[in-house]
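Contributing new complexes? Match this layout with pyridoxal-5'-phosphate.
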Amino acid sequence: MTRTVYVNGEYLPETEATVSIFDRGFLMADAVYEVTSVLGGKLIDFDGHAVRLKRSLDELDMAEPCTKDELLEIHRKLVELNGIEEGMVYLQVTRGSDGDRDFVFPSDDTKPTLVLFTQNKPGLANSPAAQKGIRVISIDDIRWGRRDIKTTQLLYPSLGKMMAKKAGADDAWMTEDGYVTEGTSNNAYFVKNGKIVTRPLSNDILHGITRKAVLRMAAEAQMVVEERLFTIDEAKEADEAFVTSASTFVMPVVEIDGAQLGDGAPGPIAKRLREIYLEESLKAAV
Ligand code: PLP
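Output block (do not edit by hand):
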């Protein structure tokens, strides 16, 4: 089925939507993005994503393409036009184009490019991967130093997923200076003796919207959370582990670099947090 997508003020069939070949998003990955989940036809944590988008734009001195209210309206309209019950809305803002290639930014009156499209994912909340848990490998983190900005420079995370796939695993956790930074497209956690451990926020990792919500919910459920650096070896010795992201919610990890965690099944804390996250997010969905 042909999707209806949004490009710079227009709702169009996906086959008719176009962006200039000179767009800096295309030529230089001069672009930021957000992915917002849809459950029950409603947007999960739209506010969190809108706030982070604004921060990414500010950090790169990029213009806001429209207001937050307008963004919400576009999200909702695409969800409705495409009949999405469970899935995602992908949003990308680029610095646009003034009709040529140049390292220097185009003039201030250049309009940013705004593109949004939906991805239909029936069964997203009840994913089989969440029942089984996923297996991860560790790889070096060789990304740039501003991972807190959600840019579209995703080549290394993409290579990382391929390394995992080739190794017969599902995903990769990246390490730098001996410590885990994050997953290729998620934040990483392990649990030992009931305590949840995850890396603190800095420029080294993306400030996950799901991470923020899950840590709040964990605290509300009287779970103990410690934000500190940790190694792969520590995580391999854990009772359980998990990752969080907007599109996978809380996803249990059952194996790290070939080492099975606990009994090899999703752990109780990861399972409980997934339940709480889905329940609470659905209640607050817009
Ligand atoms: N870390 C990285 C590198 C990511 O790409 C993502 C999501 O795409 C996350 C963490 C999780 O962020 P969020 O929970 O906002 O989806």
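Reviewers usually confirm one structural detail per submission. For this one: The helical segments are 24-28, 46-59, 68-81, 128-132, 155-166, 209-220, 232-236, 268-284.
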